Amino acid sequence: xxxxxxxxxxxxxxxxxxxxxxxxxxxxxxxxxxxxxxxxxxxxxxxxxxxxxxxxxxxxxxxxxxxxxxxxxxxxxxxxxxxxxxxxxxxxxxxxxxxxxxxxxxxxxxxxxxxxxxxxxxxxxxxxxxxxxxxxxxxxxxxxxxxxxxxxxxxxxxxxxxxxxxxxxxxxxxxxxxxxxxxxxxxxxxxxxxxxxxxxxxxxx
Length: 205
Description:
By secondary structure, the protein is an all-alpha fold. The chain has twelve helices and no strands. Helix 4 packs antiparallel against helix 5 (about 75-80) and helix 4 packs parallel to helix 6 (about 90-100). It starts with 8 loop residues before the first helix and ends with a helix.
């Protein structure tokens, strides 16, 4: 074992996994979390510092959050908890989901609702709608309806589609048979979106 923990095989293996090519990034390949198993305390400290530094950059994303959770040492768990106030919506949501997996607190539901109600959020539609579909609580369902009318423009169509699915009026989370109606929620006019909501709710069981 090298005297410098940053040069250990496990640490170097993890560091190499941070260099993703464009194809890996698009396909959602994560970092090498298996390299984080069985680290010594000095090795874990090196990784923790590295992840904390990366989380302060504009490139911070779900991969750093998953690595932080996989590190699973007290300082890493504390750092994971602090991500509830991170500037990135993607980071906050992934951190909430990982925390709820270990000890359910409702953090995921709160973050989903927070993002659905934020007309300025820049989180991707899939990044938000996938967990919203999983956490289909009454609170989330109500937030989807609000988002369809007043949410971020890039989310409204998807929120309407998922809301109709939850309401029993669609066969799947984005039912293409109702696509013309969903597209009305992408219109700039709020009056058009409000009228579309009346049609949407009429289809619900």
